[in-house]
Specification:
The complex is a heterodimer of chains A (296) and B (405).
Chain A (H helix, E strand, L loop, with lengths): L9 H5 L1 H28 L3 H7 L2 E5 L5 H12 L4 E7 L1 H11 L4 H4 L9 E6 L6 H12 L4 E5 L5 H40 L1 H9 L4 H37 L16 H31 L3
Antiparallel strand pairs in A: 1-3, 1-4, 2-3
Helix pairs in contact in A: 2-8, 2-10, 2-11, 8-11, 10-11
Chain B lengths: L1 H19 L8 H104 L7 H117 L11 H6 L12 E4 L2 E5 L4 E5 L2 E6 L3 E3 L4 E9 L3 E9 L2 E8 L1 E2 L6 E2 L4 E4 L7 E10 L2 E3 L10
Antiparallel strand pairs in B: 1-4, 2-3, 4-12, 5-11, 6-7, 6-10, 7-8, 8-12, 9-11, 12-13
Helix pairs in contact in B: 1-2, 1-3, 2-3
The chains are: A alpha+beta (296), B alpha+beta (405).
């Protein structure tokens, strides 16, 4: 009989219990990574958080009519880096000011409101850079209705630097988790290869090449890794969706739920799953080699 | 009044003439002596009267001047009172403005103090707010904006303080200007009041002086009245003596068997006209004082004019109205230089108020002979007194001589 046995899912057939545990563990881990990945994708690191904390204030001249100010706000909102531009009339500015300095209310007396109206301009998270902020401020300064532009020039570079650093830290942590996953997977693969060494030796004696065995093990690990990563990312996305719905304030940090179904998000999730498959396959091969060579 | 005195003087002159030409003197020396005596008394009384008239005229002039001064002082006093009223009104208006300005300054000072206090409190609030991190600390742009607005707020408050300070300074300047104006006006008011008081005292003084003059005038008028009465009595005496003289002449002419008796007064003009060569006007002029009874408005009395007064240019030559002889040339009180020409037959012509005589007493003259000149005067006009007498009676010269009225 020349029929050759299928080597697909050999581990599952030889060691079903431990593999089930490992698979559950990996699924949970991919759920976490998927949640983190989608959060990072939506938030752009800390970019959205910082963009939500940053605004340019265009202080208007005292005599600017509301209609002109609102027209200017609409024009500013049409600039590419601008996410929104809202006009606040002098009355609103005065109320906000008094909220910040409540003790001033009785002092002003009959003096009236000395404050002008202003336009608050928010920048898109992905355009929160010094160049884009400079573009908007220079455009505003050229407008005769604008008395002064407050763009936080003193602290904006520091903020942007901190944002970049924080984003890299977030990405680094994510990468560390991926690396950890890879190492743990390799160890698990090695341990399983050692545990199934007798079975693999039996198969080798019956004419099954070791390389073929390793390939099919790695292919199975990659496929399962892809499926687990996709499932975990989907589950993480669901958890993120539920979290954003349950805690709306998170939207200002992470982003809106609608961004979860954007093609770029889906593409990133697919790429992540493919990456997880590659890592799983690589971990299987490396674990096989380590078991065969007797290394750790 | 002076015309009456002139008549008296003329009478005296006639008496003097009679004395100078005593044709029938030996027969009536006693009468002549009495006449001289009465003449002396009459002259003395006339001198006194003349003096009284002069004094009265002076009193009247003084009264007029004093009344003028009183009127002028009253006008000035009225103007002064009006001025004082205007000054009072101005002071009142200035005081009102001053009060308004003071209130404004007080209000501005209060507002200034309040604004400064508010500014200081706002600075404290701003400082405390900055220390505490005003606004949302998780949202730096809000803090930046509120800091900017706080600067605007403080600038507006500081500007308000500056504005109030300037307004207060302006008001204070206005106030001090008003105070200076009030002080100046008050000083002016005091000065004008002093002037008014001085005018009032001068007016009182002038009124007292006027009262004195009034008293003096009344006294002089009384004295004059008394003198006139005396003169009238004296005239009656002189007339009586004159009648005696005429009677003596008539008797003398009767004794001489020649000459006609004295004609009736109605024939007097014809007698003058019958003079050799007739009569002519002594000069070209206009009668300003007619003959006969006239009412003197100055002293409110009726007087009897014995001649006429002819107004002519100063320095005019006075000619004899007819042929005759100069009977008298001399000064007579009240008439100045008087020249009397005897035309014969009891006819005399009398020329008064002459400046110079161009003929001598006793000189025979013809009609038209220049006998004297009128005096000069600032007005360029002088007056000649002309009287014609016949039989001791004055007649209207215009009935015998063609004169312009």
């Amino acid at each position: 009989m020349s029929e050759r046995p299928s080597l697909w899912w050999i581990d599952w057939r030889l060691s079903r219990g431990p593999l089930l545990r490992e698979t559950i563990g990996r699924l949970l881990f991919f759920c976490l990574l998927g949640f983190a990945l989608l959060s990072l994708l939506l938030s752009g690191g800390v970019g959205r958080f910082l963009a939500d904390r940053y605004a340019i204030t265009a202080v208007l001249r005292a005599e600017v009519p509301s209609a002109e100010a609102e027209g200017l706000a609409r024009k500013v909102a049409a600039l590419p880096p601008v996410r929104s531009a809202a006009y606040r009339d002098p009355e609103a500015a005065w109320k906000e000011f008094l909220r910040a300095y409540p003790g001033l209310d009785p002092l002003r007396g009959a003096g009236g409101n000395p404050l002008p109206g202003y336009i608050e301009i928010r920048i898109r998270p992905d355009r929160l850079t010094g160049a884009d902020v400079g573009l908007v401020t220079s455009a505003l300064r050229s407008v005769s209705l604008v008395e002064q532009v407050l763009a936080g020039e003193e602290w904006l570079p520091r903020l942007l630097r901190t944002g970049r650093l924080a984003s890299w830290v977030c990405r680094g942590i994510f990468a560390a988790f991926l690396a950890g996953f890879f190492l743990v997977s390799r160890l698990q693969e090695r341990a399983r290869a050692i545990a199934l060494a007798g079975d693999f030796a039996f198969l080798a004696e019956r004419g099954v090449p070791g390389g073929r065995l390793a390939f099919f093990r790695a292919a199975g690990a990659a496929v399962s890794g892809f499926l687990l990563a996709a499932a975990g990312t989907a589950a993480g996305g669901g958890a993120l969706f539920l979290s954003l719905r349950a805690f709306p304030f998170l939207e200002s940090v992470i982003g809106p739920t609608s961004d979860l179904v954007l093609p770029r998000t889906v593409a990133a999730a697919v790429l992540f799953s493919l990456g997880a498959a590659l890592l799983s396959g690589a971990a299987s091969l490396l674990g096989w080699r380590a078991a065969r060579s007797g290394r750790k | 009044m002076s015309t009456a005195f002139r008549s008296v003087a003329l009478l005296a002159a006639a008496v003097s003439l009679w004395i100078l030409f005593p044709a029938a003197a030996p027969a009536a020396r006693d009468v002549a002596g009495e006449l001289r005596k009465e003449r002396g008394r009459l002259l003395e009384m006339k001198e006194r009267e003349e003096k009284t008239v002069l004094e009265l005229t002076e009193a009247l002039r003084k009264e007029k001047r004093s009344k003028g001064r009183v009127g002028e002082l009253q006008d000035r006093l009225k103007r002064q009172r009006n001025l004082l009223l205007r000054i009072d009104r101005k002071v009142s208006a200035l005081n009102e403005r001053l009060e308004g300005a003071e209130n404004a300054v007080r209000e501005l000072e209060a507002a200034h103090g309040q604004a400064r206090t508010d500014l200081q409190r706002a600075e404290v609030v701003a400082f405390a707010g900055q220390r505490a991190g005003a606004g949302d600390p998780r949202y730096p742009p809000a803090g930046e904006r509120e800091r900017h607005f706080m600067r605007l707020y403080l600038a507006a408050d500081a500007e308000g303080v500056v504005r109030i300070t300037r307004a207060r300074e302006r008001k204070e300047e206005e106030l001090s200007g008003l105070e200076r104006q009030v002080a100046v006006t008050e000083r002016k008011r005091t000065q004008e009041k002093k002037v008014g008081d001085t005018l009032l005292s001068r007016q009182e003084e002038e009124r007292r002086r006027l009262a004195d003059i009034e008293r003096e005038k009344k006294r002089k008028e009384k004295e004059l009245k008394s003198l006139r009465a005396k003169i009238a009595r004296m005239e009656s005496v002189v007339s009586r003596v004159e009648r005696q003289v005429k009677e003596r002449e008539r008797r003398a002419r009767k004794g001489a068997g020649g000459g006609s008796a004295a004609r009736e007064p109605a024939e007097a003009p014809r007698r003058f006209a019958s003079l050799s060569g007739g009569l002519s006007a002594p000069l070209a002029g206009k009668i300003v004082t007619p003959f006969g009874r006239q009412h003197d408005t100055t002293f409110d009395v009726t007087i009897e004019n014995r001649g006429v007064e002819i107004e002519a240019p100063s320095g005019s030559s006075v000619k004899s109205v007819g042929q005759g002889e100069v009977a008298f040339a001399g000064a007579v009180s009240g008439f100045g230089n008087v020249l009397i020409v005897q035309h014969g037959g009891g006819l005399f012509s009398v020329y008064g108020r002459l400046e110079t005589f161009l003929v001598k007493q006793g000189e025979a003259i013809k009609k038209g002979t220049v006998v004297g000149r009128l005096p000069g005067s600032p007005s360029g006009k002088s007056v000649l007194y002309l009287e014609l007498r016949t039989g001791g009676t004055a007649i209207d010269p215009t009935s015998a001589i063609p004169l312009d009225r």
